[in-house]
Design brief:
The protein is mainly alpha-helical. The protein has helices at 17-29, 34-40, 53-56, 63-72, 83-87, 89-100, 116-119, 122-125, 135-138, 140-152, 156-170, 180-203, 206-239, 243-246, 253-267, 272-288, 292-310, 315-330, 334-352, 357-372, 376-394, 399-414, 418-436, 441-456, 460-478, 485-498, 502-520, 528-541, 544-562, 567-582, 586-607; strands at 8-11, 50-52, 77-81, 107-111, 131-134. Strands 2-1-3-4-5 form a five-stranded parallel beta sheet, with helices on both faces. Helix 12 (180-203) packs antiparallel against helix 16 and helix 29 (544-562) packs antiparallel against helix 30.
Length: 608
């Protein structure tokens, strides 16, 4: 327990006031990771109060006396170093006073301009113990984390790793949930019928282009047969929901998918190409719903058939490889996912050329995966290539370009440059509003990303209305029970927890659980978000038994659905361990913490 009034005293020149304000705001809004609060028995999960003399001393009758008292009452001294600070006699005097207190080892420096020899005040040049962070080399976020680690006397890597994990978790809208696969199936049938009419027109020109017409007729006939067979399968699927067939039973979307998957194997066994297309489509729908095991089975069947019938280098093979890669990414198998994305990219580049939009799609997905592993520089390079292709082919205001800019913003996010990320996310929002209007799911996602950057900067009150507006759009367009609302409600609830509005946050978390259970069942991994949130909320409220209940359920669901070594499992383990420490169950907490560390170490090694 600290006996000091202030966690830190910020000493700075008037020329560096903007840096002092930024650092003051960052420190007082920073939330110490739960596992570190428990491990080090911190009295609070906040780094405050912080003393900044221009704010704290407004009406002090004696500036020098007040400063000396504040220095004496400060656990640490942070010096913002620059050529201006080096020339400031007041900054130098504050450092010298703090050294005389016998706390030279508790001085930390933030270099914002100039080399150390030119930026350090004279009193610092004689103090070789001072730890320094340099925003030009370390970046703003890493510099901030270095200072925070020093103040808390914890390892910098502990803070950096948890900060990166938090950023990655919140950028949750880079890959949204959709039912694009089912739309594709219907579109395929329509396309086949249109092609048949085109073949009929071609036959009328047989005298001029007989060979071309004969070929077109063959293709059209094949596509018409494809459409007929697909239509038969779809009719069989949806007959299950007919009241006369269902006999009063309620049929869920999952049951329709399961019936369709089974019918495809029996009804299309003599049409391997059509069967592969339908397996791919239904497998993609399963994937969009997070039903990974049936998705894997159908995508494997589709990939095997397409390779056998079309050859290893066909673009359709690349399409299925991309869906397989997404599945492996979603289940935490980053190494396998990258290999699949790179195979798909090579096929499309060889078949279509380097500047094709389909190549850009594969590059975009690969860039998103590499970002998730923490390699922001390689991800940035890939996104820049995608931007060039899409701007050249689609223009600067196309929605597909917005999707790439969304990923590019995530690179800035990953590097801790939240102002740059906010700027890019706002551009994405503008493009989508201009393209789709105000009431569109993609507009809601972009709005939520802007809110997330504000959340990460501690601007919880500013993030709240954006999260609420995003949720309102989704409810209006998708309905009040749509699966996408699970994450939206969880994000809003997390923000409300930070604002201390526990009852409202709890109602949002509980609604998210209810929606998820109704949409995809009680064992879907998406439920881990609101269940984890409820565990943390009840921990903070002091209801440890109820907190234990939610953490145990979240842990069971995530282990069963994602495997015991997924990083989402580590998230739950850490939250659970923090609660156990608060309940004085230290040995149990240590076991969970050790397991979480092991999971994260293996994930980091795999990413490299």
């Amino acid at each position: 327990m600290s006996n000091f009034k202030y966690k830190a005293f910020i000493s700075y020149s008037h020329a560096d006031e903007k840096w002092a304000k930024w650092l003051h705001r960052q420190l007082e809004s920073y939330r110490i990771p739960k596992n570190l609060v428990a491990q080090h028995a911190f009295a609070s999960n906040r780094v405050k109060p912080i003393f900044r003399d221009r704010d704290e001393l407004g009406t002090s009758p004696s500036l020098s006396q007040a400063i000396e008292e504040a220095l004496s009452a400060s656990e640490t001294l942070i010096v913002i170093c620059s050529p201006a600070a080096a020339k400031s006699k007041w900054v130098n005097a504050e450092i010298a006073t703090y050294v005389k207190l016998g706390r030279a080892e508790r001085i930390y420096c933030l270099i914002v301009d100039g080399n150390p020899s030119a930026a350090f005040p004279p009193a610092l040049l004689t103090n070789n113990e001072a730890l320094a962070a340099d925003v030009r080399h370390d970046g703003k976020q890493n510099s901030f984390l270095k200072l925070t680690a020093g103040i808390l006397q914890v390892a910098f890597d502990d803070l950096r790793q948890r900060d990166q994990q938090a950023r990655n978790r919140r950028l949750i809208y880079i890959s949204g949930f959709s039912i694009a696969g089912m739309v594709f199936a219907v579109g395929l049938a329509s396309f086949a019928l249109i092609s048949r009419e085109q073949a009929i027109e071609a036959r009328e020109e047989a005298d001029i282009q007989r060979l071309a017409a004969e070929r077109a007729e063959q293709v059209a006939t094949q596509e018409a047969e494809t459409a007929r067979r697909i239509s038969d399968v779809l009719i069989g699927i949806f007959q299950v929901s007919d009241p006369s067939e269902a006999r009063g039973n309620s049929i869920t979307a999952r049951e329709l998918l399961d019936v369709g998957a089974a019918d495809i194997q029996s009804e299309l066994a003599d049409q391997p190409v059509i069967q592969a297309t339908m397996n791919h489509t239904i497998g993609d729908v399963y994937l969009s719903l997070g039903l990974y095991q049936p998705s894997r089975e159908l995508l494997d069947l589709a990939l095997s058939a397409r390779r056998e019938v079309l050859g290893d280098d066909h673009p359709d093979v690349a399409t299925t490889l991309i869906r397989k890669a997404q599945l492996e990414r979603d289940t935490g198998n980053f190494v396998e996912a990258r290999a699949l994305y790179e195979q798909a990219l090579a096929i499309r580049e060889n078949a279509l050329g380097d500047d094709n939009l389909a190549v850009a799609e594969a590059l975009n997905d690969l860039a998103a995966l590499i970002w998730a592993t923490g390699d922001y520089e390689e991800s940035r390079q890939l996104y820049e290539r995608v931007i060039q292709i899409r701007e050249r082919s689609l223009g600067v205001d196309h929605p597909d370009l917005a999707a790439t800019l969304n990923g590019f913003a995530s690179v800035a996010w990953g590097g801790g440059d939240y102002p740059r990320a906010t700027q890019l996310f706002e551009r994405v929002l503008d493009i989508r509003v201009n393209s789709y209007g105000n009431d569109h799911p993609d507009v809601a996602k972009a709005m939520s990303n802007v809110a997330a950057t504000l959340f990460m900067q501690g601007e919880f009150s500013q993030a709240r209305p954006l999260y609420e507006q995003s949720l309102a759009i989704q409810e209006k367009v998708l309905g009040a029970e749509h699966l996408d609302l699970v994450l939206s409600l969880s994000n809003l609830a997390e923000d409300l927890v930070e604002l201390g509005e526990y009852p409202v946050a709890r109602s949002h978390y509980e609604r998210a659980v209810d929606i998820g259970e109704a949409a995809v069942g009680s064992d879907h991994p998406m439920l881990g978000w609101p269940l984890d949130g409820l565990g943390t909320l009840h921990h903070l409220s002091g209801d440890y038994e109820l907190s234990r209940k939610y953490f145990e359920r979240a842990l069971q669901i995530r282990e069963d659905a994602l495997g015991p070594d997924h990083t989402d499992v580590a998230d739950t383990l850490e939250g659970y361990a923090a609660m156990l420490r608060s309940n004085d169950e230290q040995s149990e907490a240590e076991i969970l913490e050790a397991r979480a560390r092991s999971i994260r170490e293996r994930a980091a090694a795999a990413a490299r």
